[in-house]
Amino acid sequence: LLTQKAESDSRIEVMPLQVKYPQGGEKQLIAATIGKEVPSGALPIATGAIVQNVATAYAVYEAVKFGKPLIERVMTITGPSVERPGNYLVALGTNLKAVIDVAGGVPADTGKIILGGPMMGKSAVQIDAPTIKGTSAVLMLPQSEAKRNKVEPCIRCASCVSACPMGLEPYLLSTLSRFEQWEEVEANKVMNCIECGCCSYICPSTRPLLDYIRLGKTTVGGIIRARQQK
């Protein structure tokens, strides 16, 4: 349908891409569409590209065309036991619990409520809170899917290395972060991590790789900012 709609405009090219995670990441999209790689530490504009998702592009259109500010967004409410899962247009500031109630409420078997998707989302401490512009989804997982398996020793399989879309070594970054070797963490390009969670997902030993990498990324980011201010 998009290809048909764009046929009359030579400035637009629709490029269907392989469905794989995390294909929607801006760095992955740039590589797949124009064949350029965003340099380490740089922004997409360094490749001559600007990446906008559909919701942002539409919000800009409404702002320019109708003078409408960003007052609402589409949210996904989902989970295996959710009564009425779907995409809902929600006014910003609406109480999360009220939105969940529209989808049938919190299922009785819920063990964890995640704000965001299953790979990059974070567990909610409470749902008596307002929605904001970054609230993209609410995922309610049953107890059977909400707990982590026992952490086992690393078996040196390198599955996390193969799975990393940024070409990093997650097992190494995780270990260095765990032992607070911040200089080594920075040297191994932790800031290039897009926190997609592929490493933790693929790990046969169910090691919390991303947890430690996030810690390392946050700490190194603070060190870099402090260094730049001197």
Descriptive notes:
By secondary structure, the chain is an alpha+beta fold. It contains 10 helices and 5 strands; from the N terminus they run H-H-H-E-E-H-E-E-E-H-H-H-H-H-H. A 5-stranded mixed β-sheet has the order 2-1-5-3-4. Helix 7 (170-178) packs across helix 10 (209-229).
Strand proportion, as a percent range, falls in: 5-15%
Multimer state: single chain
Average pLDDT for all residues: 95
* N-to-C span: 53 Å
**Rg on CA atoms, Å:** 20 Å
Order of the strands making up the biggest sheet = 2-1-5-3-4
SSE string, helix = H, strand = E? HHHEEHEEEHHHHHH
Query: Which structural class fits the helix and strand makeup?
Result: alpha+beta
What's the arrangement of secondary structure elements?
Layout: H1 2-6, H2 26-34, H3 54-66, E1 72-78, E2 86-91, H4 96-102, E3 110-115, E4 122-123, E5 137-142, H5 143-146, H6 159-163, H7 170-178, H8 182-187, H9 198-202, H10 209-229
Helix pairs in contact: 7-10
